[in-house]
Structures are given as C-alpha cells and as structure tokens.
Model the fold of this input.
Amino acid sequence: MATEIRVPTLGESVSEATIAQWFKKPGDAVSQDEPLVELETDKVTVEVPAPAAGTLESIVVKEGDTVEVGALLGQIAEGAGAPAAKAEAAPAKADAKAETKSEKAQLVDVVTPSAGESVTEAEVGEWSVKVGDVVKADDTLVELETDKAAQEVPAPVAGTIVKIAVETGTTVEPGVLLCQIDPSGEGAAAAPAAAAPAPAASAPAASGGSSMPPAPSAQKMMAENNLSADQVAGSGKRGQVLKEDVINAIASGATSSSSAPSAAPVARGPVAAQDEIREERVRMTKLRQTIARRLKDAQNSAAMLTTYNEVDMGPVMELRKQYKDLFEKKHGVKLGFMGFFTKAVTHALKEIPAVNAEIDGTDIIYKNFCHIGVAVGTDKGLVVPVVRDADQMSIAEIEQEIGNLGRKARDGKLGMADMSGGTFTISNGGVYGSLMSSPILNAPQSGILGMHKIQERPMAVNGQVVIRPMMYLALSYDHRIVDGKEAVTFLVRVKESLEDPQRLVLDL
Done:
C-alpha cells in the first residue's frame, strides 16, 4: 500500500508554493518524518517530511513546478525501505521505534464524519484543542464548515491530543484523519518534546549574505523599491529573503543608496507597504463561498425583475395586539408577522402558480405544493431553512416551525433536509432596519418576497390624511417564466390578505 505525500497547509493567505528541491529520488529508502522536499512561498520555506517509512516510489512534480495546497507530490511504498532504515540504526534506536510503534497502535483516530448525502468536502474551522491537551469524551475538538452548515466534531474517547493532522482552513473529505488521541494519557509528556524543535526552523535569520536567492515575489518587490539584498534581513531558510522581509524593511525606513533621481519611486513604497501590513486577509468560509456563487449564478441565469408595492400593516398589528397573549398561552409560541406573511404568500401562490414554478432546460415544472424558504441571518452567513407544506399549516403551526428552524440555524444544527426543496422564499430585511431593497432570487426558484421596516407615514384614506404603519414589499421574479401581470397580481393578493386578515381565515 502506498502513502501519498501532499502539499501541507502553508498559511491562511498562501494557496500555492514552488518546488525548491527534492532531498530524495525514487528508490531511496526514507524514514518517517525525514525531510523529502523543500517548498518555497512568498512568506516562508517549508520542508515536507515523510508521512511514513518505506521507499520513495514516485515523484509527481519536479523542481521549479508550482503546486497548490493539497496537491500530490509523490508516493511512498511501505515496507521496502523500513527494514533498511532499521538495519542502519543502532539497537537502541530500533527499540525506541518498536516502543513508538506499540504506542501508536493504541492511538484513536478522529476522522472527518460524513456531513450529508450531497456534501463531499468540508473546511476545517477553529480548533478547540491543541497538542498536549487532555479531553473528555464528547468534548468539542474542531468545527467543520460545509457549504450548507457548520458541524462540531466531538472526542470519541477521553485522553490526550497527541497529533493534529490538519490545520484551520484545510479542505478535507469524509474519512480524512483530523487528529489522534492517546486514551492512556501518556501523550502529554511527549507533546512538549515534539514541539521543541520548532524554534530551530526560524533560527537562521541571515545578517549579511545568504546561500539562497530571494524568493521571486521578494525579488520583484525589492526591484520596485530599489532595495538591494544587503538592506533586507532574510528570515527564510538559510537566510533567504521573503516578501514579508521586504515589507518589514520598507516599513522600517530602509532606502536605496542609489542616486537622487530614484527618490520619487521609493517614496511611494513605504505607504503601500504600511497599508498592506494594516490589511487583514480572512479566508471565506465554505458557506460564504456558496452564498456568493449561488447569488451570482442567479443574476447571470435568470431574467430578474423586481416589482414593488406597499401594505398597511395596521390590521395585522391590531390583530396581534388583541390576541397575542391568548395565542402564546395556547400554542406556546409568540404571534409574529412571519406567520401572516407566509400564509398570505401561500394563498397568492395558488392563484398565480407560475411564481411557484421553476425552469428546467426547456421545461417548466409547476409545484403543486408550497415549501416556503425563510431567510435567516446567522453569524456565519445567510441560510434559508424551509417550512414544508406551509399551505396546509395553520398560522400557529407556521410560527412554531419557523421558531424551531431559527433556533437550529443560530445553533449551527441545520441539516440538509432542513434547507432543500424550497419553492418560494421570504426575506425579512426589516428586522435590520431596511426600508427598501431588491432581493436576489434563490435559484432555481422563480420568486422571492422582500419584507421591510414598518414605518409610520402620512397616507390618504377616504379623503383624509392619516398616519398609518406602512411597509414596502418587493417581489423579485424570473421574467422568463413569470409575466409582469402575474407578478403584480401576486403582490396585490399578498397586500390584500395582509390588509384584510379575514381573507386568510375565509380562504379568499
């Protein structure tokens, strides 16, 4: 069985690296953790150790190639090289390796769980533990983010964290090793020893010369700012100058010793460098990437148009005021606006079925049911859980379901089934103070209703100017399937139901 050698995570803002040099060639025997290849980025040089003992079977990428994080570098054939390595080692080392192997056999692997039928990968979020920490069974180890939801990974057993195999920001598939736990608890003593060699990697900060040329990005920045190699202290391996070193040198006031004509371009350098230092680069979560992609796809594929109207919320507000205490006492949930809006939408969808349909190639699929998506804002982004068969539910049942889905969304416990199959979406920007907006379709749906802030405005009622609690409504729709007349009629029906709630009771 072959063990893969892959590009490790290189840092939050680093997505690729260049192969600097291979220390081994195919057929060479390697021992576990022995450096195999050196990678260069604009921030650091990294040695990739052997993940297992054996024989270097193949090298996939050659020196000078650029590779991305996670790319396959080569493979190690297990077994063939291991005996040779042991034969050269002293008997004491052989005994130590045997003990280590015995200890490793007791370790418990924590792997990426399956996140759902259509979810094939997840991104590693923040780790709640570090190597050497003692955990109890079911303690949260790490949070995984998919394009649908976040999922906490608990400890399967009590013990000591002896290895964290993937860093924050790494994309992993189901079954990939996340970390290892030593249930005996003896791994705690080994953790500091394993971490001790780390400072040595940053020790060789070059003072004058360097045995390696500057990294390509550093070379370019030095040329742009007229800096020479002796003006920048390299912090990379063997004193190599990295991009970050150049930025630090510019920020500290390093200038070229060349003649006055070059002063003008150099003067712009420190400002740009200082701005770059003050910037913060944060990796987009899987959820945010999916939101961005789906919204842009909706704009690109649909003939999206928005029509507006306004609704007098006085009748609904009076009804809530009159019955809210009795409603909460009987149904165990507060009487909000979403129940009325959802019910009004389902009534309008029955009259205008095109708004509840979707396009599939050259076909139109009419949905004879109303699964209403309710957009919910969370700290991780916008999610749209679905109230299924809302047309068959009472206002009380709708409010209860929306409350349950909202709690699950805030707790990060929404599953795939909670967010799939919606036929129409309601988005309430009014809770954040939005007075007017044009919502973007939740593809492949053909309609989305935008609710907004209730604001008192002077209105003409029966020839008199009166102050009424008004709300702007916005219906965005796919003009490929919904005509303007249908869209306007739909919005008018929603308005009529809200301004005369008895229509909802009488099914008018």
